[in-house]
Amino acid sequence: MSVVMKALETYRDDFTFRNSPEAIARFPFPFPEDSYMYSVNLEPATPREPGSVFAHWFDIDEHYVSEMAERARVLERDPDRCLVMPHMAQAAWDTLEMLMEHLAADYPEHFALQREGAQWLWSNRPLGIEQRFTFGDASTLPCEPLEYITRQAQGDFALLDQRDGDLFMDAGMVTCPADWSLKFDAGMSFKQWHAPVPGVAHQLGVFERALKYLVNIQVGHPVRRLNWTMTINPRLDTSSETFHEWGHERGEVTAENVASLVHLRVELQFMPRLPRSNALLFGIRTYLISLEELASNPAWACRLHRVLRDLPDEIADYKGLTRYRQTVVDWLRQFDPQACAA
Amino acid sequence: MSALLEVQVAAVRQLTPVVREFTFAAVNGRLPGFSSGSHVQVVLPLAERTLRNAYSLLGDPRDSGVYRIAVRLQEASRGGSRYLHEQVQVGDRLQIGVPSNLFPLHSLARHHILVAGGIGITPFMAYLAELEAQGASFELHYAYRSGLTDAYTAELQARLGARFHGYDAAAGQRLDCANLLTGKPLGSHLYICGPQRLLDDLRARAAALGWSAGRLHWEAFAAPEPGLPFTAELTRSGQRIAVAGDHSLLEALEAAGVEVPNLCRGGVCGQCATGYLGGEVEHRDHYLDEQQRSHVLMPCVSRGGCSGPLLLDL
């Protein structure tokens, strides 16, 4: 199935980002039940139906060109959103190889890779890039290899070094985080960077079990999970560094604008083993959908109503929903037959 | 075990009278990359049963067009190494697992001390390629017997110069474990691959010198030791499985069509941990603590007793 890319849209200022009906149909709605609680919802990342966001290792969709333009804008203001500690150089090359191989194989109409030994030729048609380089020699690329390839791949990428039976966030490209910061988390262990997650997740032993699972991921056998939060406006860059630019928008939600302003934000997290470095790649592919778009599927709107209505306060606080949750629940109630009848 | 790769034997080299090196090439497409210290399981279809033995990959991880392993002929072999030495020829096809790394280099080490006993040199062959490419600080200590277990010694001596320290048992040279660990720079990490007594000796000396456990890394020769035959009962299905003395419980389960996730097949990785509800257990793993052992066992190495069936939570 060929991906048709939309013309340039924005994730800031005038917020022209919208989903086509096709994009809405393939949106990864994250709730298998009418309620939400933390769990180790990791599963083997086996490819699913063609056209779905689970079809390929790295999903490319209609927003590709816009999202890459947004990443470039963020990096222009803050080049440190990409960080590679010296011992992660090989993991960066691993990531470049993995992304190029999979993009070229899965989207041959958009990407191509020719390898002759260490001499590689990479073509990216949507962005108009053609690059000859020597694999392993960073001086033959316009910038550091992780930055180079992740400027051409949707979603954030953290590279986790595996040592001492733990994972450490020692490299990454993070320009669209859901209220966190790579600069703040750099060098932290798995449990350290999850420390802000509400106590209930820790009490459930979620992180011990998840870590044990992740350190045993094998080459060629990645795992995935979905995570979610909500964002005001289709804003990709909700990083801690720019909180002053977007945090106040949580107070702007009204009964009139809630459907267009509030977005469900879903992360498709994808974790493959990087073969040569033994590091773990942590891909965070973000999907945004306005409540208005989401309600075009009434079953989703009904379920989201129940999830948000019954969400424990501690989790709502952590996700930053508290100020506008009631307004959202009130609007979604119309899609819940049980609640309307009551 | 997860999906298998189909490979063809591209080359065979007899390195010493008891060590034989095999080069595997992909039958379809490209072999997955691997990191130094990785091993693969090789499926060995013996006449009487199928074995899955784990062998370290010894090529350069930066050039993984092919995989290489080196196999020592084991006298007390269960038949796996003998099969590789006597049956497998260039052009044969074999099935192997994907690479998995339970013995990785530590990315923050300032200095790497590698200690190999005999065939324990194999994971370090990949280490050395990686460390040389990184320009890292390292030294190799290799105990061998010339004319028998001295695989790669000439090559390593020429390549590593003063960083190579060989100890030839045939010439009466002994690895001096006492002095190996003294006077090393701060941030040194020690990696050991060899027989159990070498591991035990070095670990004890390191502990006595105050080395923190996190700076010690080892890989034991992983092969299940034989024992007495016993019976296992799968309590969920009621199935009874007879485990022969020279089969591991994991092998017997696999032969009966019961798949249990596993990586090392040597009692260290923890992947095959299986609950049990009753029966006598001889725990032989290096993974579970005493508390866990009351209800979990590692079928790759541990065995049941003769007094009655081992009741597995399967």
UniProtKB/TrEMBL annotation, chain A:
InterPro entries, per database record: HODM_asu-like
Protein name, as recorded: DUF3445 domain-containing protein
TrEMBL record, chain B:
Entries under InterPro entries matching the protein: 2Fe-2S_ferredoxin-like_sf, 2Fe-2S_ferredoxin-type, 2Fe2S_fd_BS, Benzoxazolinone_Detox_Enz, Beta-grasp_dom_sf, DmmA-like_N, FAD-bd_FR_type, FNR_nucleotide-bd
SUPFAM superfamilies on file: 2Fe-2S ferredoxin-like, Ferredoxin reductase-like, C-terminal NADP-linked domain, Riboflavin synthase domain-like
Protein name: Ferredoxin-NADP reductase
Key words of the record: 2Fe-2S, Flavoprotein, FMN, Iron, Iron-sulfur, Metal-binding, Oxidoreductase
Cofactors that this protein relies on: FMN
Glycoprotein keyword on record: no
CDD domains xrefs: fer2, PDR_like
Domain 2Fe-2S ferredoxin-type: 230-314
Pfam families: DmmA-like_N (PF22290), Fer2 (PF00111)
Gene3D superfamilies, sorted: 3.10.20.30, Nucleotide-binding domain of ferredoxin-NADP reductase (FNR) module, Translation factors
